[in-house]
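Interim report to the steering committee. The following record documents the input for Binding-protein-dependent transport systems inner membrane component (311 residues).
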Amino acid sequence: MTAQLGTPPRALTEAVRPERTRRRRTENLRGWIYCAPFALAFILFLVWPTIYGLWMSFTGRSLTGANSSWLGVENYVEAFADPEVWSSLGNTVWFTVLSTIPLVLIALGIAVLVNLGIPGQWFWRLSFFLPFLLASTVVSLFWKWLFNPQLGLINDMLGNFGIPPVAWLNDPNTAMHAVVITTVWWTIGFNFLLYLAALQNIPDQLYEAASLDGAGSWRKFVSITLPQLAPTTVLVGVLQILASLKVFDQIYQMTGGGPAGATRPILQYVYEVGFTGYRLGYASAISYIFFFLIIAVSIVYSVIAARRTVK
């Protein structure tokens, strides 16, 4: 008797069902209307250029629009045999190695120091993050003056220790290191904030329990802090590798890819081939080779990091 009273009449159920269907359709339509501007921009400025660039990589298209004949994989064969592609790709990988390691380790170090509770927290956070807000042109001009062989502050400081002036941006042996120093100073604030937020989310109970067991500061750091920061380290590592592989603006503004091509990244070579050499088809082929390389590196690093995190 109770079950019969709790069951709605069939006629009422059939009357409510079309109303629910109509309401669901209305909500779906509103959702599509809200997403439409983003979807349109996504298709116009990301999906379509990606498809169009892939098509151009198989043609001989030039910047003037002429010679759009189909070449097949001829551009890719030429790119794999081009020594300039490999030298600029080597510079990009070398920059990534030199910049990623300090941008992870130094960011972790200063985040741990700030998290210790030293006075003036807001000052340290602002000091480390403020350079990240500057435009690349400002940073490049600022450090070009610092690295100036005759008037730069860095050579002046080295002179106080008896070290002769160094032509930082004009010497192939030091130019890449100068760009790396600039990049570390400029972008370390972002990684610093990620690590600082992760440190502040570690439960205090873990450190209190370790203290009761007699663990010292170093043991707490190795056994609690570093494992708790592992997911953040994976995130920082992936983001930093991707950002370093895409380096262009600070190198172009500080050295122009020189001296003698010692700092020219692959993106600058793509720019020169496409907009100086007028070969958009060939430049697209190099871009897609680099694109697939970035995807491969990201997947390999993510898999390795995920396995270490699980262990």
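The chain has a mean pLDDT of 87. The committee is asked to note this result when reviewing the revised timeline.
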